[in-house]
Amino acid sequence: MRKWVVLVALILGVVFTYNQMAEINSILATLRRGDWRYLVLAFFTMGAWFFVNGWLYHHIYIAMDMQESPWRLTTLSAAGEFANIIAPSMGMSQLAVFISEGRRRSLPSGRVSMASLLYILVNYLAFLIILTAGLFVLERRSILDTAILSAAGILACATLMVVFTLWIGARSENRLAHLLIQVSRPVNYLASFLSPRVPLSEIKLRNFAHHASTGLQIISARHQNLYFPLILALANKLMLIAVMALMFMAFQAPMTLGAVVGGWSVGYLFLIVSPTPNGIGVVEGLLVLALRHMNVEAGDATVIVMAYRGFTFWLQVLVGFIAFRLLEHHFFPSQNSHVAPEMNDLIPFDPDSSLTSASQDSVESVYNKYPDETTLNQT
After folding, report:
1. What is the pTM for the complete model shown?
2. What is the DSSP letter of 336?
3. Are 269 and 148 in contact (CB under 8 A)?
4. 61: domain range?
5. Which of 17, 72, 89, 317 is 20 to 30 A from 257 via CA?
6. How many Cβ atoms sit within 10 Å of the Cβ of residue 3?
């Protein structure tokens, strides 16, 4: 990644952490009061959660005919989550991390972007499965209100939008390119006030659409390869629920399965739809309120939520910061590539590339489709 991007990200991370020092001190004071055995178990559960995230990306990459180490994808995932927290932009910060590192390893940004969309989709679907059970618990306890239903509706709409985008890409490369060109026009118009250079040219977008559509067509032909990523996404969510249950045990609070699943579902739902980074300042209050409605004492609910957020949010910030530093220093060496920075999406055939042979054939076809553009860029 570019040095100035890394520097800005690290500065934002330090400023963000400094502004939240009061909350961090409160969480540390709370954790000291808990049973260390359950806290250690929660720590290792979160460690497994990070690796499951990496394996989830790994299997999506395989399904899209890309090769990447699961350990490196674990680091990328943690760094991407860190970028999302310090620079919230509806997931675009995380996507930028994957695209930047993908280019360094000669992976087309179109296919990397679709892999990230598939990651979002399987996570949304996994959560919707658990949310169904959570809403059932809330309904049984007569605490299901309009705000929760509205948030669930927003999540359902977001899921449908992702499905629609992926469906267009799998059905027609030209339709996806047309959609991208239409969306890029207001972006290019606003960017024209800052620079005369067009950031999203039609050639780049059509090339992006080609790689994206090729990857999605591979998925469409082997849709069974997405079953295991969905299972991993479910395991990912169950680990977070386990951390919530361990917080009940660590602070010796009375616990029921309904309280854990129902409370966690509300907290995670508003984490997704919240306008603040990772739901900070919103999730805490709503989660305490949800647990109170589940007949958890106010004092217990407060310490449980603070400790839970310490593991699921602040530990994520710390690990993400370390992952970002590893990527900055190229802890994972890139493959040998003769692709110029401006040609990262138009990748020539290279037997040492990260793409498999089936993908190389599709990449070569870009030169046949846009011979003038590739020749012009090479000169």
Report:
1. 0.77
2. P
3. yes
4. 3-369
5. 317
6. 8
The reply to whether 21 falls in a domain is yes
pLDDT tens for each residue of 104-120 = 777 877 888 888 888 98
Residue 274 domain-assigned (yes or no): yes
Query: Cα(175)–Cα(316) distance, rounded to whole angstroms?
Result: 38
CB-based contacts of 310: which residues, under 8 Å, 6+ apart?
27, 28, 30, 31
Residue 244 and residue 294: Cα distance in Å, rounded? 14
Spatial separation of the C-alpha atoms in residues 220 and 118, rounded to whole Å = 12
Please count the structural domains in the chain: 1
Closest CA to 266 of 130, 111, 142, 369: 130
Cβ atoms < 10 Å from Cβ of 128: 15
Residue 236 lies in a domain: yes
Enumerate the β-bridge partners of residue 66.
355
Contact 133, 264 (CB under 8 A): no
CA distance 34 to 248: 10
**Separation between Cα atoms, residue 100 and residue 331, nearest integer Å:** 15
Domain assignment present for 317: yes
